Every structure is written in C-alpha cells, then in structure tokens.
Amino acid sequence: MILCYFVARIWAGVNVVIDPVLQVKTLKTSFQDKNRQITVVDGIDFEIGRNEVVALVGESGCGKSMTSLSIMQLLPRSGTISGGEIRFRGQNLLKLNRREMSRVRGRQISMIFQEPMTSLNPVLTIGLQMTEAIVRHLNVKKPEANAIADEWLRRVGFPEPTRTRKQFPHQLSGGMRQRVMLAMAMACQPELLIADEPTTALDVTIQAQVLDLMRQLLKETGMSVLFITHDLGVVAEMADRVIVMYAGQIVETADVRSIFTSPLHPYTKGLLQSTPRMQGSIEKLVPIPGSVPPAGTVLPGCRFADRCPIATAECRERLPELRVIRPGHSVRCIKA
Ligand SMILES: Nc1ncnc2c1ncn2[C@@H]1O[C@H](COP(=O)(O)OP(=O)(O)OP(=O)(O)O)[C@@H](O)[C@H]1O
C-alpha cells in the first residue's frame, strides 16, 4: 500500500517527501504594474519534510524572496498571490484571515532576513521585542517570557543574556544582531523557519559562526527550514535538498549531493561553474553570460534559452515541463 503511494507520487512527477510540513502547490505571485500583471513566481510546486533543510537558490531576481514572502503573506502592497495553495500541516494558509495568519507567523512559521535592522525596532530594547512575541504566542506571563528569552539568548551565544535584553539593536554588531534574530525566531519553537539570505550581510568569519550555530540549533530542535541563498557554499553546508529557481520557475530540484555531483540543468551547471571550490584542481570560474530576464518577460520557449550554451531552435519553441528524471530529481530541460 505504502509502496503504491510512493510509486504513484513519483509517477505523478512529485518529489518524494515523507511527512511534509509545507506543501506549495502551483503558487503564482504577481505585481500590478500600470495596466499589466507581472508574474514573478510562476506556478511553483515543492514540499518541505519534517526536519528537512531545503535550499532555494538562484540569481538575484529569480523570485526566491517573493516565494518566501508569499508563504508568510508578507508581500509588498502591490503584490498578490494570484493562484495556487500553500499548505502548512495540511491547512491552506491562503484561506486564513489576517488574525489567523498572524497567529501562524512567529508561532508555527518564523522568518529571518538578510538585514536584522529591517526586522528589529531600533527604539525598543532586545528584551522588549523578544518578550512581546513570546507573551503573545506562548501565552505566558512576563517573568516566564524573560526566562525563555534569556535561555534562547544564552543558546545563541550571549553569556550575559539579562544584560543583552536591556540593550538596543544599535549597540550590537551585525553578527550579534543576526544571533538575536535567530533567538527570536527560535524562542516560540516554530515548526518551520524561513531564512532569507541570513548570513549574506556578514563578513565570512562571522558568517561561518552563524551557520555553525544554526546547524547546531536545527539539529537540537528538529525544525524544518527553507533556506534562501544565492551562495552555493552555504547550500553545501546547510541543505538536504535543493530547489533551483530561474525567472520565477523551478528548473531543477534534487538532493544536495546530486545537485553538486550530477547537475542536469545548464543553469545549475552554470551556477556551479561560477562558484569557487576549496577541493580539487584550481579551475577557472566561468560566469553565466547575460542576466535574468526582467520580470514579466514572456518568451514562448525555455526561459534560460538565451543564456544557455546548448540551446537549439527547439528550446525556443515551447516551455519545457519539469520532468522527473529519477526519484527525487526533476529538471526542466528537454536536453537533460
Ligand atoms: N515591489 C515590487 N514591485 C514589482 N516587482 C517587484 C517588487 N519586488 C520584487 N519585484 C520583482 O520580482 C522579481 C523577483 O524578485 P525577488 O526579490 O523574489 O528575487 P530574488 O531571487 O529573491 O532576488 P534577491 O536575491 O536579489 O533578493 C524581480 O524581478 C523583482 O524585480
């Protein structure tokens, strides 16, 4: 019976995810620009399993952040989710009202951003900002919320958490602020953490420390993570599975090992060739020529064709489907 279920799912072109926490189905997100709708996330499907770290990768402008902001329903005012479903533990988040969704945010799904200063209020102490969320979501009194905040601040590396609670964001360094954000995100023990380029703004040594800390906390808590990054080094360190996005669509998805050892889409190969590696021979980095087409560009064929080294006339005729090549590995390329 169980075997039949998995065979059916593979046959249906879905990657096998056991016990999905999040299911994104044919998600479409658009912006209204004067008289036309610009689609920036174009019918993407993916799932995140329990305890799984899924990396969403792609160049700037591919639609990674709009995907995560759609899940959280925190899109800019001109953006709307124009189709699809976002199921968290089976419940379609798009059917929730504002109040119900604000209960999910922070309690069941937390998010951390690239620049903590955009999320932290500069005029409130760290303690006030942390305990406000803890009191609201965990329904505890202030002294207990303080104790929970101290516990998490200690876990992310502040030896004197009571003192840190009394500080304002500007009194901390960038790395410290990101660790505070991590403590805030973890304090209500959400099931899913969305981390949007959490270490991009930090220098490399601090970046390594924050990644180490995240890995350790994820192991301890068993949380699921959607990790958004354009840094393949970070992907190799953190992810179990990788989703490669290009121009609002998924072009390849596979487990992290397959992405690095046997990538199939020319875009994924291009990303890997343009990333420095520590091991092996010193090879020349090969940048991908051109750039991501502006959002709303509608071409009849493959969206990567203009930059693809192996594209033929056939590639420009019709949009390829995302095909399952083997269980867990799908690609949107007719040449793969
Ligand atoms: N407020 C907005 N109005 C109109 N278009 C927008 C808006 N915000 C983003 N976009 C467009 O949506 C597309 C996807 O943007 P998104 O921020 O998701 O890309 P990204 O892959 O996360 O890139 P980055 O790594 O630079 O954050 C881009 O073409 C961008 O120009």
UniProtKB/TrEMBL annotation:
Entry keyword Ribosomal protein: no
This protein's UniProt keywords: ATP-binding, Cell membrane, Membrane, Nucleotide-binding, Transport
UniProt membrane topology term: Peripheral membrane protein
Compartments where found: Cell membrane
Single Gene Ontology BP annotation: peptide transport
A Pfam family reported for this protein in Swiss-Prot or TrEMBL: ABC_tran
Gene Ontology annotations for the cellular component aspect, listed alphabetically: plasma membrane
Main location class: membrane
Domain ABC transporter: 22-272
Molecular-function annotations in GO: ATP binding; ATP hydrolysis activity
Keyword Transmembrane helix among record annotations: no
UniProt cross-references to InterPro entries, sorted A to Z: AAA+_ATPase (IPR003593), ABC_Ni/Peptide_Import (IPR050388), ABC_transporter-like_ATP-bd (IPR003439), ABC_transporter-like_CS (IPR017871), Oligopep_ABC_C (IPR013563), P-loop_NTPase (IPR027417)
Protein family (similarity comment): Belongs to the ABC transporter superfamily.
Entry protein name: ABC transporter ATP-binding protein
